[in-house]
Amino acid sequence: MTNTIEVSWKGQMLFESVAPEGSVMIDADKAVGGQGKGLRPKAMMLTSLAGCTAMDVASLLKKMRAEVDDFKIEVSANLTEEHPKYYDKVHVIYKFFGSEFKKEKIEKSVNLSVERYCGVMEMFRKFSEVTTEIQYFEK
Questions:
Q1: How far apart are CA 115 and CA 134, in angstroms?
Q2: Which of these, 43, 57, 44, lies nearest to 116 by C-alpha position?
Q3: pLDDT digits (tens, 9 = 90+) for 38-63
Q4: Which end of the chain is more exposed for a tag (fewer CB within 10 A), N or C?
Q5: What letter would DSSP give residue 125?
Q6: DSSP 8-class letter at 85
Q7: 36 within a domain of the structure (yes/no)
Q8: Same domain membership, residue 115 and residue 53
């Protein structure tokens, strides 16, 4: 299966990325001529990672009947100093909100995403040290 997107220049450092499912704006930092009208490319990579594993976890939580009130994923990454700059360390924090957590099922959902299902996570492992953590917030 081949996925294809098209990126079109919208002036200055602004671009629109169009995929069959929708579009997103990409822009550079103001220091290099951007206007702050879109995500920067490296932030989009972290967004892709969080989105991929979030979809896995949401689906698995539903299948395992381990619903939570809410959950968020925070991704922080270390950018190398030398060009080409890339993320050499990435930390993914899964934050679950609610009460009476079914922790065993929640942890199984996260682990299945991390170890088996999330293709973006696997791609990141090719160039980064990826670590994960689960946090619970009782309401």
A1: 15
A2: 57
A3: 999 999 999 999 999 999 999 999 99
A4: N
A5: H
A6: P
A7: no
A8: yes
